[in-house]
Amino acid sequence: MASPNGGDDFESSLLSFEKLDRASPDLWPERLPGVAEFAASCKNPITNSPPKWMAELESEDIEMLKELGSLTTANLMEKVKGLQNLAYQLGLEESREMTRGKFLNILERPKK
C-alpha cells in the first residue's frame, strides 16, 4: 500500500522548471499571419482615431461596409453569388474582346 504522501512525491516529480523563451518566433510561430498585430491593437484603449486600415476608405466604402454588415447570412450569400456571376460574365466578355483583338491584329507586337 502506498504512503499517504506518495502522491505528493509523484506530482512533484512531474514538475518541470525549464524556462521557455516565448519571444522566439522559431519556438512559437504565428499560426495566422496578422493575428498578433490585430490582438495587440485590440488591447489598446479605445481612441477616437480610426484604425489605419480605415484611413484609406472613402465614405462610399464605409457605407458599403455598413450595408454588407447589416445583411443576414442568406442575403450575404446571395450577394456573394451575384458577385461571382458578375466576375464570370466579365471573364467571358474579356475573352471575347481578346479574341476580337487577336482577329483584328491589334495585339501584335511591333516588328523591330
Automatic annotation (TrEMBL):
Pfam families per UniProt: LIN52
Signal peptide: none
InterPro entries per UniProt: DREAM_LIN52
GO cellular component terms attached to this protein's record: DRM complex
Superkingdom in the source lineage: Eukaryota
Gene Ontology BP annotations: regulation of DNA-templated transcription
Protein family per UniProt: Belongs to the lin-52 family.
PANTHER family (alphabetical): LIN52 FAMILY MEMBER, PROTEIN LIN-52 HOMOLOG
Name by which UniProt lists this protein: Protein lin-52 homolog
Naturally occurring in which organism (per UniProt): Solea senegalensis (Senegalese sole)
